[in-house]
Design a protein that fits this description.
The chain has 376 residues and is of the alpha/beta class. It is 25% helix and 24% strand. It contains 11 helices and 19 strands.
Length: 376
């Protein structure tokens, strides 16, 4: 492409400081260095993790930054040593990179990576090629998809089917894979089982979809926003419980509904009290509860007897998917109409409207807003 090897000036939504509106700026994106890929982001969506970082993160040294980690785009140019990608490839950036060589990458038991852990411990400007007004910009979760162009190591990029619509499959960069995989990969939901999903945002709805795909007989959707129940039905929920309608603990409500507890529960909110409730909603003996929602502000606790009786309490990142293999499979499942994506999208906007998208998500008025850098 004509821009290869040159600095690109482009539009980006910059978070200059915590808890403040994002600012649309012209930034500079340097060419990719060795083993790096420069990507033109075609579509990106807003995830609750972006909001968590912007409003609740305790580390103020992580600003200024480019938020966004659910994106999809086209390779613009590649650096020396890149053989897996070429200009024109459709790709999805990965916030969980894969070096492919460490003991974690070689194990089927996890999607962790030693290189990812090492980079997480470093200040992200060490690898950033993005600057604004002479200042290096950090890339949220190593991606920064609220920029029209971004540069990433080839370990953190996956090539996808050229037939895939980028304004739909961008959702696979985080939320949908996280919830769906929590059900099928981590909980390993079995046919005929009973499940409870706490929280009906995009991650929770994807967990509902995963429970249904795994053959669950009964899927109980739990949320304090009754407006979300009809949407949950689309993805496979069979029952709906609003904790505000009851004067007893939600775990007790679910145990009474199911004759002793659910086989699987998935907490998709990031609230430690809900995590405990989800665990204690499981049947003793074999119940499995998965922590899916993100928070690092509080400890989570339960009484030991709740585990000694045979319940399993576990968690996952990105639904247990290894991105390099998992995302192409999910793209194929979408193209084969085995996984829904369009149904998650409640709003389409341009990146100029990112602050409107943030307000919608903060107030529970959207599931996913997909943004482009220019109108379609």
């Amino acid at each position: 492409m004509a821009t290869a090897g040159k600095v690109i000036k482009c539009k980006a939504a910059v978070a200059w400081e915590s808890s403040k509106p994002l600012v649309i700026e012209e930034i500079e994106v340097a060419p990719p260095q060795a083993n790096e890929v420069r990507i033109k982001i075609v579509a990106t969506s807003l995830c609750h993790s972006d909001l968590y970082f912007l409003y609740e993160s305790l580390d103020k040294s992580l600003f200024p930054t480019i938020l966004g980690h659910e994106g999809a785009g086209i390779v613009e140019s590649v650096g020396l040593g890149v053989t897996e990608f070429q200009p024109g490839d459709k790709v999805i950036p990965l916030f969980l990179l894969q070096c492919g060589e460490c003991r974690f990458c070689k194990s089927p038991k996890t999607n962790r990576c030693e290189e990812a852990m090492k980079r997480h411990a470093q200040k992200s400007t060490e690898h950033s090629r993005l600057t604004c007004k002479g200042q290096k910009l950090q890339q949220f979760m190593g991606t920064g998809t609220f920029s029209e162009y971004t540069v990433m190591n080839q370990m953190a990029v996956v090539k996808i089917d050229p037939a895939a619509p980028l304004d739909k499959v961008c959702l696979l960069g985080c939320g949908v894979c996280t919830g769906y995989g929590a059900a099928v990969n981590t909980a390993k939901v079995e046919p005929g089982s009973t499940c409870a999903v706490f929280g009906l945002g995009a991650v929770g709805l994807a967990a509902v979809m995963g429970c249904k795909a795994a053959g669950a007989k009964r899927i109980i959707a739990v949320d304090i926003n009754p407006d979300k129940f009809e949407k949950a039905k689309v993805f496979g929920a069979t029952d709906f419980v609003n904790p505000k309608d009851h004067n007893k603990p939600i775990s007790q409500v679910l145990m009474e509904m199911t004759g002793g507890g659910v086989d699987y529960s998935l907490e998709c909110i990031g609230n430690v009290e809900c995590m405990r409730s989800a665990l204690e909603s499981c049947v003793a003996g074999w119940g499995v509860s998965v922590i899916v929602g993100w928070t690092d502000l509080h400890d989570v606790a339960t009484r030991p007897i709740n585990l000694m009786l045979g319940r399993t309490w576990t968690g996952c990142l990105f639904g247990g998917f290894k991105g390099k293999g998992g995302i192409p499979r999910m793209v194929k499942a979408y193209l084969d109409k085995k996984v829904m994506l369009d149904e998650f999208i409640t709003h389409n906007m341009t990146v100029d409207q990112v602050n409107d998208a943030i307000e919608l998500l903060k107030n529970g008025k959207s599931i996913r807003t997909v943004m482009r850098f220019s109108p379609q």
